[in-house]
UniProtKB/TrEMBL annotation:
Record-linked InterPro entries: Dev_Immune_Receptor, Leu-rich_rpt, Leu-rich_rpt_typical-subtyp, LRR_dom_sf
Name used for this protein in its record: Leucine rich repeat containing 32
Tree of life domain: Eukaryota
PANTHER family: LEUCINE-RICH REPEAT AND IMMUNOGLOBULIN-LIKE DOMAIN-CONTAINING NOGO RECEPTOR-INTERACTING PROTEIN 3 (PTHR24373:SF130), SLIT RELATED LEUCINE-RICH REPEAT NEURONAL PROTEIN (PTHR24373)
Keywords per UniProt: Leucine-rich repeat, Membrane, Repeat, Signal, Transmembrane, Transmembrane helix
Example GO molecular function: transforming growth factor beta binding
Transmembrane segments: 627-649
One GO CC term, this protein: extracellular matrix
Record Pfam families: LRR_1, LRR_8
Amino acid sequence: MLLVGGLGLRLREQMCAWLEICTMAVLQLLLPLMVCSVAASERPPQHLPACQVVQMDVFCSNLSLRSAPVDLPQGVRLLDLSRNQVQNLSQETLAYQSGFQHLNLHGNKIHFIQPGLFKDMTDLRVLDLSRNHLNVFAHSKINIGPLTAVESLDLSNNGLYTGMSDYFLADSPSLVDLSLNGNSITKIAHNTFSGSSSLRRIRLHNNVILEIEDGAFEVLDNLTELDLSKNSITCITNFNLCNLKVLNLSKNSVELFRSATTMVFSLTHLDLSENKMLYFPLLPRFNMIEHIDVSRNHLQTINVTGGLEKRTQVYFNHLKYLDMSYNQLKSIPESFFHCKDILEVLNVSNNCISSFSITNPGLLQMVKIINLSFNPLQSLTFGENTLPSLEKLFLQGNDLTTLEHGIFQRFPSIKHLHLQQNNLEVCSLKHEHQDCVSFSSIPNLQFLNLSENNLMILPANAFTNTSLKLLDLSLNPGLEMDKDSLSGLEHTLIHLLLKENNISSLNTDLSSLKSLKHIDLSTNQLTNIPVWSKDSSIESLNLQNNNLVTLKYSSMLALEHSLKTLYMGSNPLSCCSNLDFLQMVQRSAVVVPDIEMTTCIHKEYSEPVNIEKVTNEMCHISGSQNYVIVLVVIALVVMIVTALSVRFCQARKRKHIRSFNA
Ligand SMILES: *[C@@H]1O[C@H](CO)[C@@H](O)[C@H](O)[C@H]1NC(C)=O
Ligand SMILES: *[C@@H]1O[C@H](CO)[C@@H](O)[C@H](O)[C@H]1NC(C)=O
Ligand SMILES: *[C@@H]1O[C@H](CO)[C@@H](O)[C@H](O)[C@H]1NC(C)=O
Ligand SMILES: *[C@@H]1O[C@H](CO)[C@@H](O)[C@H](O)[C@H]1NC(C)=O
Ligand SMILES: *[C@@H]1O[C@H](CO)[C@@H](O)[C@H](O)[C@H]1NC(C)=O
Ligand SMILES: *[C@@H]1O[C@H](CO)[C@@H](O)[C@H](O)[C@H]1NC(C)=O
Ligand SMILES: *[C@@H]1O[C@H](CO)[C@@H](O)[C@H](O)[C@H]1NC(C)=O
C-alpha cells in the first residue's frame, strides 16, 4: 500500500518533536508536584465490599481506588477497575494476582506500567488501558514486555504519538484486536505491527495519520478490518491489502482511491464517505465488494480517475449497497448499472441530477430502495418491466411536474412513495388530462407522501385499488378534495395528514374510513369538525389552529370511546356553547398535549379561559347550590299557596255558616 501524505509533513514532524521536548520539560516541572499530591491524597486500600462480586468476576468501577482491593478473592477472572485513580500499574496494584482473563483499566491515570507485568498472565485475553496517560510511560522508552496471551488490547485516548505504540506492541503474538483510536499518531511505520502479526482488526479512528509506510499492513496476513476514519489521508494509489474485508477511510481528505491489483481481492466494505473524491473509486476488475459509501464527496462524474486510462469493465457482481448521496453528479448513465446485478440500495440523493432513466428491464432487477431525493429532477423514465423488486422510491424535493401517468403502476412491489416537495397533479380514475400521475391500482402501495405539491384537486377514487395505510396531503393550500376522493381506502387507511391546507370545510366523508386512527387537520380554517359515527376508531385527532367556535357535541361524543389524544389549541372556542364537550374532556382520560394553549372565549372574561377551568357556574347553569335555593323557593311557594288556599277555604266556610245563619 502506498500512501501519499499532504504537504507540510515535515513541518508536522518538526512540530511534534518540538512538542515532545516541551512536554518533557513540563513533566519535569510537574513531577514533584504530582508526587506531593499523591502523598497528600493517599488513602488506605479499599476493601472488597464496595466492589460487586459475581462468581469470579469483580466489578470495582468508579470507587476512587488507587489499586485493587487488598482482599481480592483468589482466582479472579475478570477485574473491572475502570474509572478509578490507578497511577502505577504493578503487581501490587493488581493484588499480586495473575490469573486474570479480562482486565479493565479504562479511565484511570496510569502513567507507569511495571515492565514484564503481563508476562506471566497466560490467561489474560482482554486488556483495556484506554483513557490513561500512557504517553508519559512511552517517554521513558521502556517496553511493557510480552503480552503473552492478550487478544484484545485497547490503547485508545492515551495521547500516544507516532512510534509510541511500539513499546506496547513489540511482543504481542496473540493480538487480534487493537484499538489506537483517539491518539495523535501521524505516521504508521513499516515495522509498527511487526511484533503483532496475528492482528485481524486495527482501529486508528481519530488520529492525524498523513503517511503509511509501504509494507506497514502487508505483514498482517490475517488483517480483515482496518479503521482509518477521521485522519488526514489524501490519496491511496495502489491499494493491495488483498485479505482486508472492511476498510474505513471516512472523514479523511482522500481525493483518489485506486487499486488495480490482479490478485484475489477480498474487500467487501469500503467507506469513503466525507472525503474529497473527484472520481468514483477504481477497484480491481474482479472483486467481492458489497458495500460502497462515497457519500459527501466531490464527485461530478461516475467515471473512474478522470479517463487517465481506458479501462475494461469492472464487475460488481457482489455489490448490494451504493451510496453516492451528497455529491455533485449531474447524471448517471444507464450503462453505469451494467454488471451491478444484485444491487439492492442506491442512494443518489442530494446531487445535481436533472434526468434519470432506466429502460432496460435487465438492469437493477434486485433493487429495493432508490433514493433520488433533493435533486433538480425534471424527467424520470422507467420502462415496462423494469425494477421488479423496487419497494421504496424517494423523490422528495425535486422539480417533478409531469410524469407519465401510469409510471408507478409499473412497479409490482412498490410500497413507499415519497413525492413531497414536487409539483405533481393527481389523475382521476379516467385519466382525463395529460399532466397528471395516477395513484390508483398500485396494489402494494402503503405509504404515500404528497405534501407540498401545490395540489389543487383531489379527484374521486384517486387511490382505489391500493393498500394505503398512510397518506400525507399536507401543505397543499387550497386543496379541493372530492367527496369520494378517499373511497377505496375504507379498510386500510390508518394515518391521514391534511395540515396547512387552508380547508374551511371538509366535504369528504371520513366516517366511512373504518381503520383510520390518526388524523391531522391542524392549521386549516375549519369551522366545523367532521362527522363521525359511533364505530369510529380515531385515537388521535389534531384540530390545532383552526376556526372552531362550537364543536358538534354528538360528533365528539362518537369519539369518546376510542380517542386517546386530542390537540385543540389556538381555536376561538366558545366556553359556554361547548360546555358538554369541555366537561367530557375534563373527566375523560383523553390526553391534551397542548393543554396550555387550549383556551376558550367567555364574554365576561377579558382573557381567554383555559378549558380546564371552565365550570357550569361560569355559564350561569344551575349547579348544586342553586338547586337548594330553587328547592327552598319551591317549598316557600308551596307553603304560601297552601296557606292562602287554607285561608280561602276558611273564609268560604265562614261565609257558608254565615249564610246558614241567615
Ligand atoms: C511503581 O510501583 C513499583 C512497585 O510498587 C515501584 O517499584 C516503582 O518505583 C513505581 N514507579 C513509579 C513511577 O511510581
Ligand atoms: C466508518 O467510521 C465512521 C466513523 O468515523 C462510522 O460512522 C462508520 O459507520 C464506519 N463505517 C463502517 C462501514 O463501519
Ligand atoms: C442513503 O440511503 C440509504 C438507504 O436508504 C441510507 O441507509 C443512508 O443513510 C443514506 N445516506 C445518507 C448519507 O443519508
Ligand atoms: C433519502 O435521502 C434523504 C436525503 O438525503 C434522506 O433524508 C432520507 O433519509 C433518505 N432515505 C432513506 C431511506 O435513507
Ligand atoms: C411528508 O413529507 C414532509 C416533508 O415535506 C414531512 O415533513 C412529513 O413528515 C412527511 N410525512 C410523513 C408521514 O412522514
Ligand atoms: C383494481 O385492480 C384490479 C386488478 O389490477 C382490476 O381488475 C380492477 O379493475 C381494479 N379496480 C379499479 C376500481 O380500478
Ligand atoms: C385561504 O382561504 C381563504 C378563503 O377561505 C382565502 O381568502 C385565502 O386567500 C386562502 N389562503 C391561502 C394561502 O390559500
